[in-house]
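Hi support team,

I submitted a single chain yesterday and got back a structure, but I'm not sure I'm reading the token output correctly. Could someone confirm the output below corresponds to the sequence I sent? I've pasted both exactly as they appear in my results page.

Thanks,
R.
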Amino acid sequence: MLKYLKYYIILVVILSTLYSCGNKPHGAVAEINELPKIDPDYSGITIPVNIAPVNFKIIEPGTAFMARFRSSSGAVIECTGRNGIISIPLKSWKRLMFSNKGKELLIDVFRKDKGSWSHFKTITDLISPDPVDPYITYRFLYPGYESWKEISIIQRDIGSFRQHPVIENSVAEQNCVNCHSYNNGRTDDFLFHLRGSLGGTFFYKEGKFRKVNLKTKEMKNGAVYPRWHPSGRFVAFSSNRIVQQFHSALNKKVEVSDLESSLVLYDVERNEIRDIDLTARENYMDTYPEWSPDGRYLYFCRAPLVSENFDYRAVHYDLFRVSFNPETLIFGEAEQVFNATAINKSVSFPRISPDGNFIVVTLHDYGCFPIWHKEADLWSVDLQTMEASPLDLNSNQTDSYHSWSSNGRWIVFSSKRIDGLTARLFLSHIDENGIAAKPFILPQKDPEIYTRILKSFNVPEFSTLRVDVNPGSIGRSVAEPALQAKWAGK
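Hi R., thanks for writing in. Yes, this is the structure output for that exact sequence:
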């Protein structure tokens, strides 16, 4: 028996060697003067030095395939795949990337068809020395509105393919989990909302969540769309009453509109919530707060208050800001930053760069909830000149939900450019002048996974540390009674 086992092992080794040699280009190799078709498209992009391997599938006819990854240091990775799937070894990839910071990454794709090998035009990418934050946290759910089934908040390690759930609503009686927020990517200041029978706002600290009911009897509406003050002491929220309009149009399922909205401020240390008392605020709807990096300004989206029988297509939000004194908690007079109404557009989701030089918004035709708006694009406002312009990363499908890395050199955003229905996460390098490089989809271990998953990835947030929780601790926190917030001054 051992004798036959020995011969079997020798035969397997021989066949494996022959297959490996036969699967690599040899003999005369024809040149094809065009780029290969690969999916996802990782050609002509700028990638962070600490990104996971950009695995892809070669979409070309053939019986054998190979991809060679190389750079000026002389390091080379060769990956073969009979079905066109190129899976790059993680350790080899990391060595190649970190030894070639700031240099070109060259990708040569070969295919064997009808017994002959061909070489496509070389793909040239750039390995940016600017690292990206090591984690992205996102909401993972089906792209509908009629069910809260299987909603989770996932944290993904960008440098590998590891990920873990921060919360799955299966431990919360299928309640809706949403509106997660970090303080400048710091996981010691993190929160998420839970809506439904076990509803509340959950604040994360030292590995535990504290459940709070932010709505007091003095408030007409609940608190949503949170943004942390850089100090970690305050969180600005919008308090909204919304209505949904359902469409029969295939490409726009539902419209979400404000009937009224205002801004509120929560003091985490004192467990107190109060109105942000802006001048003439009863005449406006104020939503989507965003703090400046120094905490001295609060940016937000503002529209005139709607009448009872309003036309949702006529509602336009502009970008405003107001000064803030964190010692006295006094806000100044509101000033307009970007007049979107003047170009018959509306803004939402303002996100400011860590250096305070740019603020990126989602620009769309009307309203305040653009995820079903095909025309939604990302625009950047230069806060030195107050000039607004579209970023060079937009598509002809919905582009929205964006977040800055802590070094201000990367943006992650949600886009429906693949199929017009499901949102995927894309990254783009942003240079010191605010110019965006060609975006690329978040790499996955299985490059075909995006063609099989029907769920959307949205509300991405960069972070620098891991949220270290487990389903048991989450389940216990969810089941606990909520701590009632106090109305300030009571």
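A quick pointer for reading it: The chain has four helices and 37 strands. Let us know if anything else looks off.

Best,
Support desk
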